[in-house]
Amino acid sequence: MRNKDWTLVFFTSLSQLSVGVVLCFTWLVYVENDARFFMEMGLSLKNPVFLALFAIGLATVISFSHLGNPSNAPKSMNNLTESWVSREILALAVYSTSLLIAFVLGWKNWNVEYLSYLLALSSVFGLAFLWMMIRIYVIPTIPPWNSWYTALSFISTTVCLGLITILFLHYIEFANVGCVTCYARFIEAQTGKTLIVSLTLIVLIEIISGFYRQSQLERMNTGIDELALNKGAFHQVFIARMVMLILALLILSVFLLKPTLLAENDHFIWIYPLLALLIAQELTGRLLFYSSYFRIGV
Asked: What's the CA gap between 141 and 72, in Å, rounded?
């Protein structure tokens, strides 16, 4: 794997985490009107809007290290009519600005009517930004990336990280007020159950698509002796990711069937390993994505 790709691993993952949190929080605000009252406000990572803003800000800073000369970054927007990279940078700026406005206006009070519209607008900008990221990597001369799997993996990462983050933030808020049983009731209610079921389906999709995609990669002739996609380090990392996904799926399945089985001393101990497993497997999946790079033609 090329050294510069590490910055892209974290840039794309953090960006998709940000968009996923905004999408899930916006959905909660519209579907569950009281959801916003369980979230912290102000300058706190427990505030989903600030967390999303922090993640996209950190992603932006990391992206500058990918550039040979960061001072030339503004020039990359000079080709909006033809370059997906230029469009991505513009979408990033618009999305970040909309988040900043929503954060400032909702600093002390989530219960303002216009905030839900601002969140919806940020979600639209976030989806546009996600689409620009996908389009950048669908390149005909790079067979492993020129595939349906690129879009699926970027979208699934966005939804997976958004769902687990929102579930974790809910747990932290209920735990802080000493009402873990309230969290249990939230999970058992329709909204919480929908979040858990959605996350379970996403993990299942990632497992199935991951195995299928790996079988496709193993049949590709890279033409590069050092780049073997069916053995060695690449295959070992792939297996490690699948193990993490299967463990996460087992935790979610047990929780869906009998949530109290994973609760101990008024603490839902499942949430911490689940969060760690899902973050680790998404980073590993992105690492595999960039490590599969090879080009044909010119």
From this structure: 27
**Amino acid letter, residue 263:** A
Task: Name the nearest CA neighbour of 86 among 97, 95, 74, 98.
Answer: 74
Which tens digits make up the pLDDT trace of 3-54?
567 899 999 999 999 999 999 999 888 876 655 556 677 788 888 999 999 9
- One domain, residues 2 and 104: yes
Burial class, 248, CB count within 10 angstroms (exposed 0-12 / middle 13-18 / buried 19+): buried
- Residue carrying structure tokens 């600005």: 97
Q: If you write DSSP's letter for every residue of 69-111 in order, what string do you get? A: -GGGGGGGGTTTTT-HHHHHHHHHHHHHHHHHHHHHHTSS-S-
What is the C-alpha to C-alpha distance for residues 208 and 42, in angstroms, rounded to an integer? 40
- Domains in the chain, number: 2
Distance of CA 283 to the CA centre of its chain: 10
Residues 197 and 53 in one domain: no
Q: Which domain holds residue 132?
A: 1-137
Going from the C-alpha of 279 to that of each of 104, 162, 163, 244, 295, the distances in angstroms are 28, 11, 11, 10, 29
Check residue 184 and give left, alpha or beta (phi > 0: left; psi -120 to 50: alpha).
Answer: alpha
Tell me how far apart the alpha carbons of residues 262 and 253 are, in angstroms, rounded to a whole number: 11
Q: Which stretches of the chain are DSSP H helices?
A: 5-31, 48-64, 84-105, 113-137, 148-176, 180-188, 190-218, 232-257, 271-291
Q: Is it the case that residue 261 has pLDDT exceeding 80?
A: no
